[in-house]
């Protein structure tokens, strides 16, 4: 950790250049020759990234940032705050501490938090930042977290793990065992140290695949931030063997949309119909959950088609997603398109449709934007249709 970066003039320079082009700044002469120019540029870039994602860090004096990539990979404050609502008790140990954002929020709920980090410089940096943030109930340990867990010889109320993908794992699809630490391999040992384990994984992890690797899963939290799924949070409890609860959370600017259901236990089937007066599109957390029938049944909505994952009703119903009022519906063919699609600008979505948005725009010369929303989808009769809407919510 380079404490020279905390020089008052350097900190003022960093603040004055927030948001500016790093490539342009890099061409300038370093006004502070005692500190590497790349280190100063990194602080500007990382702090710029933190402005929206980590407002408490951004607004606190003398915070030192790791690389921009580390800031990009850490939890946002909003998702960290949600995770802190899951845990309770006296003690929690974070085996993959990183930049410490999750622990900052765990420390608001848990009496004492332990932050483990294998990187010495990052651990020192986090310890410094916690002092600036006036957090006094977090203890930082450096080294391999598995060895730390063995050495401390303590029983914890919670173990938290945010495993990272190994560099030698190629492709987008991955398994939890391909990450560090290897949670499936160490899970029995973790349960010797705690009765509850919380695991954060990337949203691209397949839920079914994760359930095959893990045991004692009680709840899977699918956490989205402003309709973008950011993380899956797996809540495990020692010896638990009941049904798995799926909890979808979309953290919005003004409120959180929450919808939960029990995985693979609902024997009921939704109703289907042609488009009615209103159209509903689930938020991204529900889309990731796969609870397409459950959401229809719970909100008493009709599905347009088994695989379209769009819903309709004659009466307006509050819903965790986008809501539209249908203006027109017609079959997708040349004659109908030429007759009904007079707009030159529209927001286009495809669901269970053979063509993609880019090709549709190109073929029918429709620009992006405006107040009109077009859904290209398949109805209950397997017909390809276009639904023209205006957005309500």
TrEMBL record:
<keyword id="KW-0808">Transferase</keyword>
<dbReference type="InterPro" id="IPR029063">
    <property type="entry name" value="SAM-dependent_MTases_sf"/>
</dbReference>
<dbReference type="Pfam" id="PF18096">
    <property type="entry name" value="Thump_like"/>
</dbReference>
<protein>
    <submittedName>
        <fullName>Class I SAM-dependent methyltransferase</fullName>
    </submittedName>
</protein>
<dbReference type="GO" id="GO:0008168">
    <property type="term" value="F:methyltransferase activity"/>
</dbReference>
<dbReference type="InterPro" id="IPR054168">
    <property type="entry name" value="PG_1098_Fer"/>
</dbReference>
<dbReference type="InterPro" id="IPR041497">
    <property type="entry name" value="Thump-like"/>
</dbReference>
<feature type="domain" description="PG-1098 ferredoxin-like">
    <location>
        <begin position="278"/>
        <end position="320"/>
    </location>
</feature>
<dbReference type="GO" id="GO:0032259">
    <property type="term" value="P:methylation"/>
</dbReference>
<keyword id="KW-0489">Methyltransferase</keyword>
<feature type="domain" description="THUMP-like">
    <location>
        <begin position="321"/>
        <end position="391"/>
    </location>
</feature>
<dbReference type="Pfam" id="PF22013">
    <property type="entry name" value="PG_1098_Fer"/>
</dbReference>
């Amino acid at each position: 950790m380079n404490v020279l970066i905390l020089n008052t003039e350097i900190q003022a320079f960093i603040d004055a250049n927030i948001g500016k082009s790093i490539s342009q700044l890099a061409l300038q002469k370093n006004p502070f020759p005692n500190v590497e120019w790349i280190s100063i540029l990194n602080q500007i870039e990382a702090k710029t990234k933190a402005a929206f994602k980590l407002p408490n860090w951004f607004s606190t004096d003398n915070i030192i940032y790791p690389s921009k990539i580390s800031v990009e990979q850490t939890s946002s404050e909003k998702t960290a705050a949600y995770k802190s609502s899951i845990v309770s008790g006296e003690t929690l140990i974070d085996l993959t501490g990183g930049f410490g954002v999750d622990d900052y929020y765990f420390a608001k709920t848990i009496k004492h938090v332990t932050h483990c980090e294998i990187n010495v410089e990052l651990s020192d940096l986090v310890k410094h930042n916690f002092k600036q943030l006036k957090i006094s109930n977090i203890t930082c340990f450096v080294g391999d977290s598995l060895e730390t867990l063995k050495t401390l010889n303590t029983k914890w109320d919670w173990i938290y793990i945010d495993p990272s993908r190994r560099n030698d794992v190629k492709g987008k699809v991955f398994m939890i065992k391909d990450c560090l630490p290897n949670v499936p391999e160490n899970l029995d040992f973790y349960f010797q140290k705690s009765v509850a384990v919380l695991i954060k994984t990337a949203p691209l992890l397949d839920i079914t695949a994760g359930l095959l690797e893990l045991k004692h899963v009680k709840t899977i939290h699918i956490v989205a931030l402003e309709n973008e799924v950011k993380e899956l949070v797996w809540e495990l409890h020692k010896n638990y063997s009941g049904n798995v609860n799926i909890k979808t959370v979309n953290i919005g600017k003004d409120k959180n949309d929450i919808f939960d259901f029990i995985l693979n236990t609902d024997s009921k089937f939704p109703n289907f119909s042609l488009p009615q007066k209103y159209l509903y599109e689930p938020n991204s957390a529900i889309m990731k959950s796969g609870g397409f029938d459950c959401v229809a049944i719970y909100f008493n909505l009709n599905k347009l088609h088994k695989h379209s994952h769009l819903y309709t009703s004659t009466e307006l119903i509050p819903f965790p997603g986008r809501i539209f009022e249908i203006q027109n519906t017609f079959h997708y063919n040349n004659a109908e398109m030429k007759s009904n699609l007079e707009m030159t600008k529209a927001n286009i979505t495809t669901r269970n449709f053979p063509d993609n948005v880019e090709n549709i725009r190109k073929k029918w010369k429709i620009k992006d934007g405006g107040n009109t929303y077009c859904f290209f989808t398949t109805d209950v009769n397997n017909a390809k249709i276009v639904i023209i809407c205006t957005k309500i919510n």
